[in-house]
Known about the structure:
Mean pLDDT is 84; it is low at 120-135. Strands 2, 4, 5, 7, 8 and 9 form a six-stranded mixed β-sheet that branches. The radius of gyration is 17 Å and the shape is elongated. By secondary structure, it is mainly β. It is 0% helix and 48% strand.
Amino acid sequence: MVEIEIDRTTLPGRPCGGLVRWVPDKDCTPSKIVVTVGWQTEGRGDVDKGDLLRGEYQTGPVVGGQTVEIPFTATLPESAPRSFDAALIRLLYRAHVRVDLPWAFDETAEVVFHVGEGDPAVPFFTAGDGSDDGLPDALR
């Protein structure tokens, strides 16, 4: 079982920290554990994504039931747009982990986190008022 704990809300220019926790069912030696923190768009039109952090970690042999913990931190750029969910497009940030197991199905986990102030359930997109809505210029 693999899981990710992460700060659920952060701001552009600030670090976002988390912890990967993996507990294998049986003795094994993963080829690597890959952790990525990035963004992605969803909705109509072109879908895009990019990574802010990509780390590969080696553990060596792991005994079944032993807990492996990998802390990570990604600092979001000052220019990073805030998370938003609009009618045509959505911008979200995610942390993803893949435990690369030779000759077996890889174990994966992913969590979504919020970039912005206030309640993550409230979208930051505000159309038509000319204020800084956090959208990239290409989406205006």
